[in-house]
Structures are given as structure tokens and as C-alpha cells.
Amino acid sequence: MSVPLYQAKAEMFRTLGHPVRIRVLELLQAGPRPVRDLLAEIDVESSNLSQQLAVLRRAGVVVTFREGGLVMYALSTPAVADLLAAGRRILGEVLTDRDGLLAELRARGNR
After folding, report:
1. What's the pLDDT at 110?
2. What secondary structure letter does DSSP report for 77?
């Protein structure tokens, strides 16, 4: 029996629900990178990064390949970058709406 689409989507969003994983995906938008480059950019222990990369790989969000002696990580599809961009847009709109509401509340004072 297959998993309902809404359940598969929820699992994908759970996979993305970790700051280190999001940071990895942001960095990979610029192109494939070896683990050492990711470690230089993300303030986590090597074992933690390795664990988070494994989660992303199992979910099919990133892929690996060898380049010389290095294991390279890359986004599995440009749609991952599109999803991150959509998240930024949504966050920007939500925060803008909150700022507008806060300004309106302050302007009205105690009325």
C-alpha cells in the first residue's frame, strides 16, 4: 500500500525541519561541495554534519558522487532550490505582515 501524498509531503518537511540541514541545502545551491567545505561554513561537529547529510541523502534531497578523492554533495534537483526560495518568500511576507500589524497596534495606542 502506498503512502498518501499528504503524508509523504509531511515527511519531506520533517526532513527539512533542522537548521543544519537547511544550511547545507543553502550552501549547495551554489553547486556541489565536499564535506570539508561544508564543515568550514557550518559550526557543527563533523559527526553531526555527517548524520545530517545522511538524513538528506536518504530522503533523496541530496546526492553524492566522487570527484578525485573527495565525496561531493549536491542538490538532487533544482526544485530543492526553488523550495528554499519559496520558503524565503513566505517568511518575508509573514514577517512583513507582522511588522505591519505591530506598527498599526503602536499607532493606535490604547484606543
Report:
1. 53
2. -
